[in-house]
Amino acid sequence: MSQLVYLVPMFPLIGFLINGLGRNVLPKPLVGIIGSAALLASFVVSLLIFNEVRTPGFSAVTVNLFDFIHVGKLNVPFAFQVDQLSVLFLLIITGVGFLIHVYSTSYMHDESPSSYARYFAYLNLFVFSMLLLVLGSNYVIMFIGWEGVGLCSYLLIGFWFKNADYNYAARKAFVMNRIGDLAFLIGIFWIFAQFGSVNYADVFSQARPGASAHVLTGITLLLFIGATGKSAQIPLYTWLPDAMAGPTPVSALIHAATMVTAGIYMIARSNVLYSLAPATQGVIAVIGLCTAILAASIAIQQNDIKKVLAYSTVSQLGYMFLGLGVGAYTGAVFHVMTHAFFKALLFLGAGSVIHAMGGEQDIRKMGGLRKFMPVTSITFLIGCLAIAGIFPFAGFFSKDEILSRAYAHNPVLYVIGILGALMTAFYMFRLYSLTFAGKFRGTHDQEHHLHESPAAITIPLIVLAVLSVVGGWVGIPEFMAPNAHVLSKFLEPVFANSHVAAPPGEIAASTEWALTIGSLVLIIGFCTWGYMKFKNFTLAEVKESTGLAKILENKWYVDELYDAIIVKPINWIAGFLNNVVEKLGIDGLVNGVGKLVQYGSRQIRLLQSGQVGIYVLLMVIGIVVLFVLQLFFPNLI
Amino acid sequence: MLALLLILIPVATGLATFFLKQGNAAKLFSLLSSLATLGISIGAAICTDKSAKSFQAPFLTNLGSSFSLSLDGMGTILVLLTGISLVLVFISTYKNTYKDPSRYYALMLLSQAGLMGVFLATDGLLFYFFWELALIPVYFLCSGWGGERRIAVTFKFFIYTFIGSLLMLVGLIYLYVLNPGQSFSLTSLYAMKLSPDQQSVLFWLFFVAFAIKMPIWPLHTWQPDTYEQSPTSVTMILSGVMVKMGLLGVIRWVLPIFPYAVHEYGHVVIGLSVVGMIYASLVAMKQDDLKRMIAYSSIAHIGLMCAAVFSVSELGLQGVLVQLFNHGVNIIGLWIVVDAIEQKLGTRKMSELGGLAITAPSLAILLVIMSLANVALPLTNAFIGEFLMFNGLYQFSAWYMAVAGLSIILGAVYTLRMVQKVIYGDTNSLTKTMTDLSLNQKLILAGITVLIILYGVNPQPLFKMTMDTVHTVAQHI
Amino acid sequence: MPINYYIFLAVILFCIGVVGVLTRRNAIIIFMCIELMLNAVNLLLVAFSKAHHAVAAINAGPAGTTAGTDGQMFVFFIMVVAAAEVSVGLAIIVMMYRNTHSVDVNFLNRLKH
Fold first, then answer.
1. Rounded CA gap, B252 and B258, in Å?
2. CA dihedral A436, A442, A445, A451 (to 10 degrees)
3. Is B346 exposed, middle or buried (0-12, 13-18, 19+ CB in 10 A)?
4. CA angle, residues A405, A407, A409, in degrees to nearest 5
């Protein structure tokens, strides 16, 4: 079955082609069916492959399709690698992707047929690229998918292209991603220069401890910079909140569940290199943690329902990077999985709310939606519980695993991590409380239209809610139940080498219990605080925020900072080059040479007066000069 | 014989077209001629018989020059590009009307003949002869059918390129004098042993000529003006094919003959190219005229190609050879879209456009595809070339590559800015009147899209075609 | 007699000629000055030829009685050309006088316009 892995990306590609080429002729229902069916087919194939990979003793399979680039020593086959890690991502992408496609059939129903088809075509193209990214058996194929998802993200953020702001957001996303991509590309070249190959198998088998540590540090740092672009980490995270300009299902699929986790996938895939470069790991842990805290702090003061979720995504991605930094590769991948469930759920729930509210996204103008939309409300609550990390929801297990490994690495990381988790609990329940609890604060018109969403929307919500509850049970920590961590056993072959190179630290079970229960109590406390504080919120309470709140509301002024130190100077330089250097300098020089010749000939022309006497005089002077030269400087000529 | 036909057909039909009275007859006749040439060039590309691909006849024998043509890998791919380009140009502009059509089409065909000659010639003097033959029709085309400032711009273009040509001629004569065999033939030049000093002088004489043609910063200012003022079909030939003359010149006439100088001055040239890439990308960000923006973007791309040539690595060279073709095809695609916009709306100013995605969806989609190829997105053909070229440059020096790599980011900035301003946003009173592409344009752009994807997914045939040139250069360097 | 004398005389004559041409406006005087320069050259040619002949004749032996006399040949050429020139030039001057009643060369400037 694993030999047929090429079918997995092929179905979305076919879906893309049919919907893309037939956008003007296909009826809307058919478009939706084709788009979703492509994903369903991929999901089924992925399940079959998973079934094969699951068997003990399975070793990674490489499926060679054709020679992509084969020049001299550089051999890049178009090949897919099937192993535990890629299969897990296949399941997440196609599974969650399918649900979101189904959801979209209803959510995007107001679009015109051709733009409806365009939407599904883009979405399928995205899934295709994402699948290439995780399936590739070398860094170049990964890079293809990497840029491909960036493109789809660009197209989908700017889907409603009439709006100039959306277009700017799309462009910003693409350009910031490209900054990371450049680093990734340099990393690939370095890998090729160092190992003579870009295939995972060759690279990882040649990476040995001790050998050229600084090279490995350089390579891994470059790859990590690539990951910060795609996975929205400091300093390249500011595009993600803006990316919320896209349709909500897109935010769920691309900007929460799948594309932004590409960076985690890349580092988890290269875990062998990273565990040999502890310096890089330190950087990753610190950056991840800083991002987690920074984004969480911003989320506390945001009032746009999607912006809150966007910052929470950035924050959760930070946790994943923290996990990668402290060597908890399984934990990071585990969190990718659970995060895909609950964050997709939250975004889809938010979409359902926005749908019901007729496009309103400001949570201060919502409230009391619980009684109008019970399914959305309950599933959203489950999502909040899961992301806050409450036992026994999915987020608890994955976050606990990352944090306990962080504790083993360095307790300071743990303490800061818990701080972020508390903020998460607070802002998520603030969000829930403002949206669903209390009284409705919108207009009368809106209240009249409030309704529960149709089945195509609620069914994906329910499925994801179930997954957000049970999804974590595949990774029950050792101290709670021995040998219950199914996921860790499943992924062991992928991370085995790293665990040998850098064995994970051990903590006593009693400490773990204490930490877990202690943090859980704190988190529940913060959840309650967040919920109670905003339960009876009224619009009258809205006032100009000051001090720290104002800074948070303005996102620490990072966008303004980038604008001032990067965008504006580059624009100024470009303008300077265009107006001064190009027009006056270089072109001026070129035209100046021409003008000089013209001027010179105009002057010399005056000598040609037609007066024979002057000619003769000049001739005589010339002869005299020659004589003088000949007489007094005989060696000159 | 194939080689000779490639030149003879355009020359003969070009001269004949001068005497055609009817404009439409000239149009059709030249289209047929370009199709025939394309047929022959495809034949040459698949033909494996070496003798059919070369031709030899006496020509100025007393000067040691002979009329010798030969097709190697680089020649093949460029001949193919020339063949395709003219067909693309003629079909996509089939509905345009030009004044004095028979002269117009005749000059286009003559220019094609010159290009073919440049790509085929293996004799220095013959190369120079065709070099001029390719350029002279362009002077007339630009000055006769161009925009408002055409005379001044053509004059600048003329002076610029002529200075380059003269330097090359001086270099050729000097080379001839130094050659003990008193010959201009490529093989005898390859066999020469030149002292470092001679190489240095000759290198700069030749390189400046080629650098003006490519163009390399800071010798580039003729280019945006000329692209802007020429009729778009001429711009397509200029940017798609003619700039490749400079690169071919460097690869065939500089690298193998002056290996010492290439090593000695490689840093300087790559430095200039890299500076030029960043410079042109930055300037492109500030352009309002579509043609000027694409012109600067082309300068950036050519800069990368030049830098990769001088990195003298196998990957870099192979990347350049593939990119010669891909860049030509892609940029012609962009020009076709620009031409469609200009013909229908009468403006090329981005600030006056917007919302074309609403009124002209096919144009929008195809423009996006061309733009993506312009930013070298993976699975477009340009990615293959750029990936290899950057890789080659990286092997030369990681720092140069890192700086040059900034153009990847800047390229995305200016290209997406263009896309955003032209097709996104809401329509204004002008763009409301826009109609979608005509069928011939759609067909041509669809064909280009197929090429973009085909060679983006499976570039191996292009590698196979051009591999021998890489080996030739590697032997001499 | 040392050749230096001839040379000095010729140079003086030549310089007088040059200065005359440059400074005078009367066409006939300019004409005469030109003749003066030509004759200065003639003088030199003859002088050099004579000096040269003395050496060349010794080297060439009995067969070389005319050796080294090429310079004198040139003198004849020059005299012929000068004669032709005088006839044409004077004719021009006469025509000029008839038209302008002046032999001032500056009148000829008008031809420029």
1. 11
2. -10
3. exposed
4. 70
Using a CB-CB cut-off of 8 Å, the residues of chain A touching C112 are: 610
Q: Is residue B181 part of a domain?
A: no
Does residue B119 lie in a domain region?
no
Residue to mutate among B381, B413, B469, with most A CBs inside 10 A, is B413
Give the number of A-B residue pairs with CB atoms closer than 8 Å.
131
Tokens found for residue C88:
């044409």
pLDDT at A211: 63
**Nearest to A530, CA basis, from A399, A334, A387:** A387
Check pLDDT > 70 for residue C62.
no
Cβ contact A504:A405 at 8 Å? yes
Q: Does A616 touch chain C (CB under 8 A)?
A: yes
Residues of A in contact with B160 (CB under 8 A): 590
C66 or A112, which is more confident? Answer: A112
DSSP annotation of B67? E
The band of A475, judged by pLDDT with boundaries at 50, 70 and 90, is: confident
A203/A205 Cα distance (integer angstroms): 6
DSSP annotation string for B294-341:
HHHHHHHHHHHHHHHHHTT-HHHHHHHHHHHHHHHHHHHHHHHHHHHH
Residue A637 has pLDDT above 60, yes or no: no
Decide if B421 is inside a domain. Answer: yes
pLDDT at residue A49 in the model: 92
Q: Specify whether the CB–CB gap between A132 and A19 falls below 8 A.
A: no
Q: Within chain B, what is the greatest distance between any pair of CA atoms?
A: 70
Phi, psi of A611 (to 5 degrees): -80, 110
- B408/B411 Cα distance (integer angstroms): 5
Give residue B299's domain range.
Answer: 285-477
Answer for the pair B444, B92: CB distance below 8 angstroms, yes or no: yes
Rounded to an integer, what distance in angstroms lies between the CA atom of residue A54 and that of residue B470? 47
- Counted domains in chain B: 1
> Which CATH number is C3-108 given?
1.10.287.3510
Using a CB-CB cut-off of 8 Å, the residues of chain A touching C22 are: 613, 616-617, 620
How many CB atoms within 10 Å of residue B218? 18
B217 belongs to a structural domain:
no
pLDDT tens digits for range B351-394: 888 888 888 888 889 999 999 999 989 889 999 999 999 999 99
Domain residues of chain A, as ranges?
1-137, 138-553, 554-605, 607-637
Give chain B positions within 8 Å (CB) of A164. Answer: 424-425
- Residue A498 to residue A274: CA distance in whole angstroms: 8
Residues 6+ apart with CB under 8 A from A255: A153, A240, A243, A244, A246, A310, A313
CA distances from B170 to A423, A480, B165, B219 (A): 75, 86, 9, 19
Residue type at A359?
G
Question: Shortest CB distance from A162 goes to which of B372, B417, B426?
Answer: B426
**Pick from B129, B122, B195, B221: which is nearest to B168 by CA?**
B129
Q: Which candidate, A135, A179, A178, places its Cα nearest to that of A154? A: A178
The rounded distance, in Å, linking the Cα atoms of A553 and B286 is 33
Measured from the Cβ of residue A296, the count of other Cβ atoms closer than 10 Å reads 26
Residue B390 to residues A310, A313, B332, B407, Cα–Cα distance (Å): 35, 34, 23, 11
Q: What is the pLDDT of residue C49?
A: 85
- The length of chain B in residues reads 477
* CA neighbor of A13 nearest in space, from A88, A121, A150: A121
Contact criterion met (CB < 8 Å) for C109 and A620: no
Neighbours of chain A (3+ CB pairs under 8 A): B, C
Whether C21 and A611 lie within 8 Å, measured CB to CB? no
